[in-house]
């Protein structure tokens, strides 16, 4: 099996811990404002995931062409507005940043197209 080394990707993972009972409102708000991120020219895509183990915990992963362009967005007025709309739902959370080193596509992704 060969390792595919992708073009450099800067990945951001956010953990959202929500106030009880706010899941549906959070999901709808996230969907309604997601284009602020996906329409940024340096954004490669983003995903919202709900924890299968912890109630009221969500993760957001977004991929960027590089760290500098992400940081540019992170300090923009658009990001502040985006963050402000999600803040009322949160009771806690964290941010992790990373560089994708290797990408090993699974068989299903290879045959069905890239569905990351």
From TrEMBL:
Transmembrane segments: none annotated. Keywords: Monooxygenase, Oxidoreductase. InterPro entries: ABM_dom, Dimeric_a/b-barrel. Its EC number is 1.14.-.-. PROSITE patterns: ABM. Residues 10-98 form the ABM domain. GO terms for molecular function: monooxygenase activity. It holds the Pfam family ABM. It comes from the Bacteria. This is Antibiotic biosynthesis monooxygenase family protein.
């Amino acid at each position: 099996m060969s390792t595919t080394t992708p073009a450099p990707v800067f990945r951001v993972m956010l953990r959202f811990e929500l106030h009880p009972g706010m899941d549906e409102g959070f999901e709808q708000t996230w969907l309604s404002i997601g284009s602020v991120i996906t329409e940024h020219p340096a954004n490669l895509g983003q995903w919202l995931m709900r924890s299968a183990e912890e109630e009221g915990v969500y993760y957001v992963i977004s991929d960027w062409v590089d760290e500098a362009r992400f940081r540019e967005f992170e300090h923009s007025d658009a990001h502040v507005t985006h963050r402000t709309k999600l803040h009322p739902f949160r009771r806690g959370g964290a941010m992790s940043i990373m560089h994708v080193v290797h990408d090993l596509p699974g068989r299903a992704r290879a045959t069905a197209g890239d569905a990351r």
